[in-house]
Structures are given as structure tokens and as C-alpha cells.
Amino acid sequence: MNGRNIPLFTKWSVLQILLALGAFGVLIGKLVFGLGAVTNLSDNWPWGLWVAFDVGVYIATAAGGFTLAAVVYIFKIEKFRPLVKPAVLMAALCYTIAGIGILTDLGRSPLIVNPIWMWQHNSIMFEVSWCVMLYLTVLYLEFSPNIFQRFKLQTLHKIQHFVLIPLVIGGIILSFLHQSSLGALFMITPDMHLLWYGSLMGYLFLISAIAMGLSLVVFFAIITARAWKLTLRMDVLSSLGTGIAWVLAVYLGIRFIELLATGNISAFATDEFGLLFFAEVGLFMALPMVLLFTKLRKKTGWLITASSLIIIGVILNRINVLVLSHAPARVDSYFPSITEFLFTFGLIAGAMFVFRLAAKYLPLYSDQLTGLPEAEKETQPEVVPAQ
Amino acid sequence: MPKGLLIDTVRCTGCRGCQSACKQWNLLPGWGEAPSDEYDTSFSPTMTNPPQLNAYTYNHVEFYEIPKDNGEISWHFIHTRCLHCIDPACVSVCPVGALQKFDNGPVVWDQTRCFGCRYCQNACPFDMPKFQWEQAWPKIQKCTFCWNRLEEGMEPACAKTCPPNAIEFGERDELLARAHERIRNNPDKYYDYVYGEHEAGGTSIMYINAVAPEKLGLNTDVKKESYPDYTWEFLSKIPVEIAAIAALLGGTWYFRKKRLEGKASVTSGKEAK
Ligand code: SF4
Ligand code: SF4
Ligand code: SF4
Given phi > 0 = left and psi -120 to 50 = alpha, else beta, which region is A330? Predict the structure, then answer.
């Protein structure tokens, strides 16, 4: 196994474990005392930080998984193969914490399975719940070879190999459906702030999720390469950077064309919403897009800066669409409670710790050197002794 | 035929009989008796008690003081509650079908289905569904249009109790005609607008008032179209989109595979030479 460089306990991983335990505590608190006890939500603000992260952020971060699976397995652009396995695991973990988040956020958590037998196909939320269930399954099946390989389950591995392409295609369709459905959740509330409202909001969610998911792949590839002394594949990552820039260009193009076509752009004013919009679109999307279009993307520092900006930008977008843009139609104010923050960060921390475990004990990085010329493979100073 | 209620706030005396009758029929605790001391009896700035609609109050009488042209203050009373939309947003968004629209008008919540996602609270253009935040096994609560009384041939408790007959029960279209007639016959008493005739595509509960509806807290920003249509625009395209993506991806995969296999055989052919 290739886990020699990956320590199990560092100050970061201990912090991750503590936060995850905290999140677990909040979950128990919610089950025993109800949502009112652990959140600042109210009839005026029925959805808050948790929904923004569960169905907004975590799901969007998972988009790197299906995008890279499509690029490598369907479009057969082999160059990106080193990134696929970690991306698929990241997606699976993101969906898992999204599932836990939704479970906790439901008033009657144990009934989360109701949509399986109670169908209401006019509801976008119904679509969403089916997509979460199905895509979670697909993701773990896509990821399963790592486990089969580790425990030498050859037959299962072969079966998985046989169904891989249908799985990947199914996963892409589910993701398209799911990511865009989430954006369309609020088409039914035309009283929200118009800078975030429009009939294309579903498709916009899908595209921004792809930018976010790929940025997260880049971000973690650099972080883990540094922390765990893996080979840093800047050749692959910087071309992914160009890809992200194009995705963002398409996104911003569609968004502005719609804002102009509907006239909603006139809702822009120099108030706090205008500021949020400017930060989200200008600072955290347009700026990193420009960075990624230039040669700066070949420098590790700039690449990680740009990808972090995009991650923040899309998080901000989700918070804006799902929570803040509804302020004009609401009375009273809402600010998340400590327990809401603890739960949100705890889920992320827990996922990061599980990722570390997988990196240590599963052949997650077995493709890390794929595509490097033989000569260079030998000279790579930071190569993990992988078998 | 769908039933409705016509609420004539010009007649309303603010006695709060409907609020009490509603609590009585639906066995709802007073605000202060709700199972948490957060819910101590309290007043709103205009001295209504409880301050607003909540999960234990389906019907809430509100007081408005509106200055007249001559500087005097006129009092207006209005009770708020779910309007039982003809094409309800809440019903269309509920993922498990916990909210249902009955043929005779009521929009009713089914406690065996709801899992508490609160999408209905977000979607309702009038912000009517309320949630039991302090409960570990919470319910969505709102006016039921006394569907269980209608079933027995009785009128809703609030309509039955109202002393000045400010809440009239009947067929919706008859009530609508009556509302317009009353406004026509008393143009000096009524503001010429039937709230609920077109709001959100039309509602079962309608209001006529002495002043413009927004002055009595009625939301006039609500669109006139039916709300579920907003989402339908998106949902209706899904089957086509799925088919298109599947075909595209399957096609690409097959094409790329053939290309790469072709290339591979060419190169291996070369090598063989
Ligand atoms: S007023 Fe709101 S809760 Fe009542 S039926 Fe209409 S959408 Fe549903
Ligand atoms: S909270 Fe309950 S009634 Fe409301 S949409 Fe969700 S499942 Fe349906
Ligand atoms: S119709 Fe029934 S539930 Fe609705 S406000 Fe009147 S008494 Fe209450």
C-alpha cells in the first residue's frame, strides 16, 4: 500500500476528528430536542445555513467526480486519469455528508426514506431526493474497485469493470438532473432578489457546480501533494485550470445574458445585495477566471489561489441563492447559531478525515504517475513508494 | 363544486371569535400553553395576542390603525390564515405529497407523510405553513379549511361563529359574484378590489376591504399566475433532456472507443512490419 507518507494523526486530523464528533453531537441534539433548539431558524427563515451547505455547497463540490469520469471514461482524454479516483471519492464523501446534512435538517429525520414510496413528481424536491439516493449508490459503485483491489476480490472487480460505462453514464445523467434541479428549487419564489432569479437558474447551478467541483479537485490535489509528499502533477492540473476558466466563461456569459434579457440587471444597486453580487461574480468568479486564462495557472501558488477563489465564489453563490436573496420577502433577520456552524464545519472535517483514511489504506493514488514519461517517473523526487 | 370563504373586513369588529373558535375546533393550545416556556403569552405592538400566526394558531386577528383624510384614525381588523389556493404552490412542492388539495377546496396536510423539509414554507407566496420548531417530532400547521366539518356538511368553525357575518361560507364563484356586487352597491364603503380573485391564480378564501389590501398587511406583490407553473417550466423539459444526454454520452463513448481501437490497430500494424 502507498500510505507510508500519510500520517493518521496530526494536529489537523485531530481537529478534524473533534469537529466531526461535535457535528455528531449536534445531530443527536437535533433528534432529541428539535430544530429550534440547535438552529436559529424560524417560520420567517425556514431554511438557513444547513440547507445552503447540504443541498448547495456539498452537492456542488461533488461535481468534480462526474465531470472527470465523463472526461476520462467517456471522452477518453487519458491525460486526466490521475485525478479520477480521488475525484470520485471526493464526490462520494460530499454526497455522504450532504445526505447526513439533509437527514439532520429534516424535521422528522427517520422519515427521510418516505420519497421511496411516496411519489409526487411535480416536486423538484422529490427529484432531488431520488437523485441523492441513486447517485450515492452510483458513486460508491464507481469507487468500489479500490476496495475490491485492496482486498483482492477479483470477481467483483471484473463485474464492476463490466458495468462501469453504464454506471458512469447513469451518474452523469443523475448529476445533470440533480445539480440543475437544486438550482430550480427557487423558481417558485419570484419574490426573491432578482439578481439571483431567472428561468435559467437550474442550468446555472449545474455549470457553476462543475467549476466548483473541478476547482476543489485542483485545490485538494495541491494540498495533499504537499502535505503527503505525492507527486504534484502540475502538467495535468494546469490544463484542468484552463478547463475551469472556460466553464466559468460559459457560466458568466449565460448569467449576464439572462440578467440583461430579463432586465433583472436593473435590480443591481449599491446596497448590500449589490455588494454580495459584485463579490460573488466579480471577485470570486471573473477574477480567478482571468487568472486561469493566463500563464499564471502553471504556477502552483497562483493555481491554488484561483481555485480557492472559485470555491469561495460558488459557496457564496449558494448561500446567496438559497438564503440571503430571500431577505427582501422576509421579516426579521437570521444569523446561524454556533451549533449550526459547528455541524456544518464538522461534516466537512469528518469527510476530510475519511479521505485521509482512504488515501492511506486504499490504492487511491495508483494512477498518480500515469502519463508521465518513463525517464521523468524515475527522477520524480517526491514519488510515493507505491506498489 | 369548490367552496370558498368571503371575508368582509368592513363588517369585522375585531372580536376574535374566529380565532378562538378555530383553536377550539382544532384543539390548539394557547400560545402560552405551547410546550415550551419560549411561548409565554405575549402581545404584538398593536396588542394582538399571540403576536402572529404560528404553529398553534391557524387564524390570527390583526389590528390596523389607518389615518383618514381628515386626520382621524380609523380601525380595521383582519384575520390572516392560509388562503387555500386553487392551484397551491405548497402542494406542488411537497416531495412526499403530504399537502393535498381536495376537490371541494381545502388544502390539507397529512401527518403520516410529511418528513419536515419545509419546502412548503419557502414556496407558499403568502407564508402560511408554520412549523413546530421546538418539537422533536414536528408538524406543519395551518388552517385546514375545517375539511372535517365540511365533510359532515357543516361550515367552518370560524364562519359559523362570526357574529357580524364577516366570514361567509359558500360556493367560491357565488361568493365572488356577491363580493363584486357588494362593492358595486357600496362604492363609498369598499375599496374596489377582491383580494384572492386572481392572487396566485386565485384562492378559495377572498377578502374585501375598506382600504387598499396592502394597507391591511395583505401581500399585493404576489403574482397573478399560478405558482406551480414556474417550476413546471423546468420540470417538463427533464425527460427530453435525459434522453438527449444519454444519447450524446453513449454516442461519444462508442465513437471514441472505435477511434482509439482504430488507432491502436494501425499502430500495431505498423509495428508488425
Ligand atoms: S396559501 Fe400557502 S399554504 Fe395555503 S394553500 Fe396557498 S400555498 Fe398552500
Ligand atoms: S415540510 Fe412536510 S408538508 Fe411541507 S413540503 Fe416538506 S414534507 Fe411536505
Ligand atoms: S376554516 Fe377552520 S381551521 Fe381554518 S381558520 Fe376557520 S376554523 Fe380555523
Answer: beta
Nearest-ligand number for the alpha carbon of B94: 2
Output the CA angle A112-A210-A177, nearest 5 degrees: 45
User: CA-nearest residue of chain B to A174?
Assistant: B242
Q: What mean pLDDT is predicted for residues A121-142?
A: 87
User: In 3-state terms, chain B is what percent helix, strand and coil (to 5)?
Assistant: 35, 15, 45
CATH number of B1-238: 3.30.70.20
Alpha-carbon span B124 to A44, nearest angstrom: 12
Kindly state whether B232 is in contact with chain A, defined as any CB-CB distance less than 8 angstroms: yes
* DSSP character at residue B154: P
HSE-CB of B173 using CA atoms within 13 angstroms: 3
What is the helix (H) or strand (E) element at residue B8, kind and residue range?
A: strand B3-8
Instruction: Provide the phi-psi class of B97: left if phi over 0, else alpha when psi is between -120 and 50, else beta.
Output: left
Distances in Å between the alpha carbon of A234 and those of A297, A376, B257?
A: 9, 13, 28
pLDDT interval class at B39 (50, 70, 90): low
Strand-pairing partners, residue B195, are B207
How many Å lie between the centroid of ligand 3 and the Cα of residue B7? 12
CB contact under 8 A, B92 and A42: no
Longest distance between any two alpha carbons in chain B, whole Å: 107
Ligand nearest to the backbone CA of B116: 2
Question: Which sequence spans correspond to the domains of chain A?
Answer: 3-370
Helices (H), B152-216: 157-161, 172-185
> CA end-to-end span of chain B, whole Å?
86
Mean pLDDT of chain B: 88
- The alpha-carbon gap from B37 to the nearest alpha carbon of chain A, in Å, equals 13
**For position A387, what pLDDT does the model report?**
31
Judged by average pLDDT, the poorest of A33-37, A155-159, B9-13, B117-121 is: A155-159
Select from B124, B91, B120 the least CA-distant residue to B105. Answer: B91
Q: Is the CB of residue B129 less than 8 Å from the CB of residue B142?
A: yes
Task: Give the residue extent of every domain in chain B.
Answer: 1-238, 239-273
Q: Which CATH superfamily is domain A3-370 in?
A: Formate dehydrogenase/DMSO reductase domain (1.20.1630.10)
Q: Mean pLDDT for chain A?
A: 87
Residue type, A254: I
Of the candidates A173, A262, A254, the one whose C-alpha atom is nearest the C-alpha of residue A211 is A254
Burial of A32 (0-12, 13-18, 19+ CB in 10 A): exposed
Cell numbers standing for residue B86: 386553487
Q: In terms of CA atoms, which chain B residue is nearest residue A101? A: B117
